[in-house]
Specification:
The structure holds two protein chains of two kinds. By secondary structure, chain A is mainly α. Helix content of chain A is about 60%, strand content about 0%. In chain A, helix 3 (about 55-70) crosses helix 4 (about 75-85). Chain A starts with a helix and ends with a helix. By secondary structure, chain B is of the alpha/beta class. Chain B has a single domain (about 30-175), classed as Glutaredoxin (3-Layer(aba) Sandwich). The chains are: A mainly alpha, B alpha/beta.
């Protein structure tokens, strides 16, 4: 029973991130928006963590800044743009869709299509070769080989 | 003919991939290009380190080609970079200091012991102004033209090579040609060069 309760509690537990209690906003709606924005902002000190996850000092400063912007009435988009204007597109964990990132967005699809195309062409070619029936000479040779193999 | 294409296409694809990956090997991902290149320096106003001196604001950056160097006494690479800044200051390059999240007394001691290359220093106690400059690690150094526009950024400590091959050429070209200079061609080893 106790184990089941703990299991259920764990199931509903939310990831805490690196947000300290003193950073949190009193308004739960604003705080939730801040969390969502922070999750897509890269911590440039650690690079592969969001500022929501990182314990770096700069990440903390940016989390507080995000909250200040929200309290002063910025939309989510405005807050993100505020940070991008200072740190560039690299600060976004989800890269923006624009001409300089087309390779990033379309690259995998292009490579997949090329690979699929190559595979189909190779498969067809092989099928064509296999469709050719054996000549009588080949048939006789095959039969004799098989007979040899079967005899002990 | 189709046989030749079947040979050339994969070979070309392989070469493209190899060149891309080769470029990636030589590319340091911890150096993030600044979003502020060719933009006016952000507006700011910071108090001085010594009370009797002026602080630092974006207006001070206008009127001469200058460096803006972000430093802290607790930052070891800044210590390594310090002699380079002293050498530049001796050559009459204007250097503005942005003292990042430092204890003012520590910063005063540090400069007292090692020498002070800065024309003016602004103290950024909480690091808020540095965020406007897109700082994510000290030391970082900007080259600002005489109209107050940011033209080049070096992340991390400047080595003698960075100084001679990258920073000095930028400063000299900007001094010769003024802020109207469109682009500064630099060796590929410089952080600000494209590609």
């Amino acid at each position: 029973m106790k184990a089941a309760l703990i299991a259920i509690a764990l199931l509903f537990a939310l990831p805490a991130g690196a947000v300290e209690p003193d950073e949190m906003l009193a308004d739960p709606v604003l705080e939730q928006r801040a969390r969502e924005i922070s999750k897509n902002l890269r911590c440039l000190v650690c690079q592969n963590q969001s500022i929501d996850d990182s314990n770096a000092e700069l990440a903390r400063d940016l989390r507080i800044l995000v909250r200040q912007r929200l309290v002063s009435g910025d939309t989510d988009e405005e807050v993100t743009q505020f940070v991008v204007a200072r740190y560039g597109d690299f600060v976004l964990l989800k890269p923006p869709f624009k001409s300089t990132t087309y390779v990033l967005w379309f690259g995998p699809a292009v490579i997949f299509t090329l690979a699929a195309f190559t595979l189909v062409v190779l498969q067809r070619r092989r099928a064509r070769v296999e469709a050719k029936p054996l000549s009588p000479a080949e048939r006789r040779r095959l039969d004799s080989l098989l007979d040899d193999g079967l005899d002990p | 003919m189709p046989k030749r294409i079947a040979f050339i296409v994969p070979a070309v694809l392989f070469l493209v991939l190899a060149v891309t990956l080769w470029w990636g090997l030589g590319h340091d991902p911890s150096i993030v290009p600044s979003a502020l290149i060719d933009k006016p320096a952000p507006a700011f106003k910071l108090p001085p380190l010594e009370e009797e001196n002026p602080g630092l604001s974006e207006q001070d950056l206008e009127g001469q080609v200058s460096l803006v160097n972000v430093f802290a006494s607790w930052c070891l690479p800044c210590r390594a970079e310090h002699p380079i800044l002293m050498r530049l200051a001796e050559d009459d390059v204007t250097i503005f200091g942005l003292n990042y999240k430092d204890k003012p007394e520590d910063a005063r001691n540090w400069l007292g012991r090692l020498g002070d290359p800065y024309s003016q220093i602004g103290v950024d106690l909480d690091g808020r102004v540095s965020i406007d400059w897109g700082i994510y690690g000290v030391p970082e150094t900007f080259v600002v033209d005489s109209s107050g526009r940011i033209r080049y950024k070096h992340i991390g400590p400047m080595a003698p090579r960075d100084l001679e091959e990258c920073i000095r050429p930028v400063i000299e070209r900007l001094k010769e040609q003024g802020p109207g200079l469109e682009t500064v061609e630099l060796p590929a080893s410089c952080q600000g060069s494209k590609g």
